[in-house]
Amino acid sequence: MNRSWLLITVMSLVTLGITGCWSKMEINDRSFVSGLFIDVTDIPGEVELTMVTPLPNRFASMGQSSGTESASPVAIISEKADSLPEAFRKIQGSLTRKLTWGQTKVIVLGRKYAEKGIEDLVEWGARQQSFQLKSYLFVAEGKAKDITRLSPIYEQSPSEVLREFANRRTLLNTRLKDVLQSISDHQGLAVNLLQMKFKTMISEPEKQSLWVVMNGAAMLQSTKMIGTLSESETRGVGWVYRSLKDPQYTVKLREGKCSLNIHHNKALIKPILQEGSQLFRIKMTAGADIIAADTRVDITKAEVLHSIEQAINDKLIADLRSALSKSQQVKADVLQLGSYLEWWYPAKWSRLKPMWPDYYKDKVRFDIQAHVEIKHYNGELKPIWNLK
Questions:
Q1: How many whole angstroms from its chain centre is CA 321?
Q2: How does DSSP assign 301-315, residue by residue?
Q3: Lesser CB count within 10 Å: N end or C end of the chain?
Q4: What is the dihedral of CA 96, 153, 162, 93, to 10 degrees?
């Protein structure tokens, strides 16, 4: 009998934990923020906060013949204030639902705001437990708010378009938590730079629709944007970040050109101590498949194959070296090489950390190596006009 009562007591205590919630808010009373867009205004010290939230009441009518067929399935709300929390309070005060951060995937910064410094965003986001530090970070060439007017052809909102940009890993996939880490380590960071342009789209009702592409990267140092990188330079940085997924490159040959698909790309970094300076050896390795050979030379010959490999290796080295040269000019350690120095030589890093930006500019040297090996010809050994 005692064992039976003990079993009943244990089962009763277990079931108390699954009786449901009585202090939580219903999902129908919430509005999920999918994207944040932050700008400065013409008034000194004033910021403009724009939020994108889905409208569930319009999803059911999408694709149906009704009066709301062409209505947007997302709400775009903006407010101006002296601080981001105050702008957020104004937005929340005008809504019938409570704003929630659980689905926030992207944060876009206007260029002027990024150049001013994003300390208030970092401070605000770090102190809110529900804020998504894994949100992808972007910088817009112009105003971040203008990005919300893009035409989401394949997606349902501008936030989803930008999220997919980062998920496809064509350049970088920097997150807000990476900014916090770079500030803590006195190091720099690279963030995708967005460019807006108008394009003619037959599928859209307007003759000209706003289109957004990634156009290189913005370099951040101490929460401020202090320079930019070109697309090719950003791909070099992305290779070391390991944010590139199966990139493609086209290299010029003595006769014609060759396009390759890169896979299993890796980068190894090792600090080498030197007297009066610091050397970092960066070795990039990958396999490659030939996807197009616009040349009349026989690519099956060993010397031609090696020349293609040498051409892609030279390009990788040149792109990364150019990016690092620009980063040194603005004292932004975008590869966060200081972290590698801390892992290998913690005592030396503790001495250099307070002065790292200046040391990085004047005393850091690079030994960049690349080794790409062609693995496959993708179906044919020679261009069809070379077959005999």
A1: 21
A2: SHHHHHHHHHHHHHH
A3: C
A4: -10
Dist CA 118 CA 110 (whole Å): 10
Three-state DSSP string of 239-288:
HHHCCCCCCEEEEECCCCEEEEEEEEEEEEEEEEEECCEEEEEEEEEEEE
- Residue 385: how many CB atoms within 10 A of its CB? 6
Report CA torsion sign: 241, 244, 246, 251: negative
| SS3 state at 56 | helix
Gap between the Cα atoms of 263 and 255, Å rounded: 25
Question: Which residue(s) pair with 212 in the sheet?
Answer: 196
Tokens 């919300």: give the residue: 148
Nearest Cα neighbor of 188 from 339, 320, 343 is 339
Give which of 359, 36, 45, 367 is closest to 188, Cα–Cα. 359
CA-based angle 44:41:108, to the nearest 5?
Answer: 125
Nearest to residue 366, comparing CAs of 237, 238, 268, 278?
278
Compute how many other C-beta atoms are within 10 angstroms of the C-beta atom of residue 36.
27
What are the phi and psi torsion angles at 250 (to 5°)? -120, 125
Angle between helices 302-329 and 231-241 (to 10 degrees): 100
CA distance 280 to 209: 46
User: For residue 208, what are the β-bridge partners?
Assistant: 200
State the pTM of this model: 0.84
